[in-house]
Amino acid sequence: MAENEFIINTPRREDIQGIAGAITEFTEAYKEAEKAKNQDLHFTKSWEGFKKLCQTGAVSRFFAVGDQLECQYNGKDLVWDIVHIGDKEDGSKYVIIQTHNCLDDTMPFDEREAIFKAPAELPAGTYHFKMPLTGVTDTNWTDPKKSGWSKTWQFTTTKAVPKGGIITFESTAEYDVDIATRKIVTRAAPESDANIETLSLTEGTAGTDLATLGTVNHAQRVCYGYNRWRDSDIRQWLNSDAEAGKWWSQRNDFDTRITTMYGAAGFMHGLDEDFRAVITKSKITTNTNKITEDGSNDTTYDYFFLPTMKNLNAGDQDSANPEDTVIWDYYQKFRQDGKTGENSERDPNRLKGKSTGGYLWWWERSPNAGNAYYVRYVSPDAGGEGVANWGHNAYHWRGVAPACRIN
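Above: the chain's sequence. Below: its structure in token form.
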């Protein structure tokens, strides 16, 4: 190149067309938003337009944390709060929305799990088992004088359990009950509601040890369900668009189906198609417990999810291993009582009810890492404030206030 030579790089035709298309797309979304705003209309009349505003980075010009949007869910209005507006590296925005109230139906986080899944057919005969209590130091669980969960139990079948069949308790068995008063059932499959047999338990070591044939489940998961978001029934239900009776499948060897919820369609099945079309599958990071897992984080990809403690501005349960680094602005800056600033541990902005009134205890997705069954939740305390609590048994029924991401 000669000295002082000046070169101009002109854009190619396809570059010009791309730029023009982006400008046109932004202009149309901008005009639509201005029109909706001036006419005091819900902008959710066009979810596609809302998504375009996120993609162009203009969404925060028209919407703010605390604004409410609507979609249809099973033929009724479902109100969503904008709880966070974040920046992506490419200059676009992402928006997290969460239901303003809980859904009208409460739901378990996860059902009580099976004692054993047969890796091969179990012929009729006598068997015994001892459920592991690995990692548990609470003597209410480990002391045989206080709890039967640390004892060895035997039973005798008269009918074979097929490969893939399960052995589970017939009904709820709390940690402090006499297990000798409880019965177990055998079933042909985890999704089966029909019992092959109902059997009594006695303390003893007669017959074949189930642990020599396969894996016996941890006592806490058998008793109260499992606090792992990745494997939870609630995660599966929230992210399913299946019809009633078709949304559940087994995610680990000890999963058992929630019979009472199985008759409901998956959550996504009842949502408007135009709303579902703009939801982005999010990368979700969640702690695991330190009893049956090592306390590290799971990564899942979900359309709908529950908040963590961090999202609710309630801190990290494990500062050395945080689940999520983002505090949603709704719980940090926006307050239902009109105040501003960071929220404390107790805050009325975390209160959520249902359409028929009253406040509910509602699930987070964070486990209480000190055991295998406690899941964090928010409760309305006596003072009327939303408290991010230590946790409750996974199989209990609590409110559900899902969130999702649009970008």
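Residues 245 and 262 are 5 Å apart (CA to CA).
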